[in-house]
Specification:
The chain is mainly β and about 210 residues long. About 0% of the residues lie in helices and about 50% in strands. The protein contains 1 helix and 18 strands.
Length: about 210
């Protein structure tokens, strides 16, 4: 006899006012008052990361109930994508509208973990808006895609404080999603989905028909 499927219960959750109230709705730039828009979001069990239109990353620690802020030096530009990773150290990758990508290695109070905030920059290969980011599970590899179809691979050595980046793939349309596992990068663009084998540097398309 077939078992009866368990009931699906929908539950409504209220807005996270404790988080939203910690993010300003406007900031003052000289004599101008600029409205702050929330432009990117990622979450995991430890953090909630929120990108903004003023180039500020708001990082809320769920365990300590604390909000911290991180930004890019220089020009204020909208953050378009954020990606968290919890491995031996907590990492967050951030992409902007002009193609800047940075990685923040967060401070941890746990013994043996990182005790000083460090930042790694992906040197100017991207020239347009970042639309996707994907981590390897160990935090040593970061893949970034932009709206012109470029995909960049960044190798991070957290112990040495080194980030080496190179262009690995270029598609004719915007990258919309990236996911990485076991030396295979799943890439979705506006036109197709493909598997990129990072060791062999070969491409296998998923399906045969282009997206309309």
């Amino acid at each position: 006899m077939a078992s009866v499927a368990s009931q699906v219960i929908f539950k409504e959750f209220c807005p996270l006012y404790y988080l939203l109230n910690a993010i300003p709705t406007k900031v003052q730039k000289g004599f101008r008052s600029i409205v702050v828009y929330l432009t990117a979001l990622d979450t995991n069990g430890d953090y909630i990361a929120v990108g903004s239109s003023i180039g500020m990353l708001y990082l809320y620690c769920r365990h300590l109930n604390q909000m911290k802020k991180y930004n890019f030096e220089g020009k204020c530009e909208s953050i378009t994508f954020v990606k968290l990773l919890s491995c031996f150290d907590d990492l967050v990758a951030v992409g902007t509208a002009s193609g800047r990508v940075a990685v923040f290695q967060l401070v941890s109070s746990l013994p043996g973990r990182n005790k000083q905030l460090r930042r790694f920059d992906v040197a100017g290969i991207h020239k347009s808006s970042i639309t996707a980011l994907a981590w390897s599970p160990n935090g040593m590899k970061l893949f970034s895609g932009d709206d012109k179809g470029k995909i960049v691979y960044s190798a991070l050595d957290l112990d040495q404080g080194i980030c080496n980046s190179s262009l690995v793939l270029e598609e004719p349309s915007s990258i919309v999603q990236l996911d990485y596992n076991q030396k295979v990068l799943l890439v979705s663009t506006l036109q197709r989905t493909l598997l990129f084998y990072t060791e062999e540097k070969s491409v296998k398309q998923v399906g045969t028909q282009p997206r309309k």
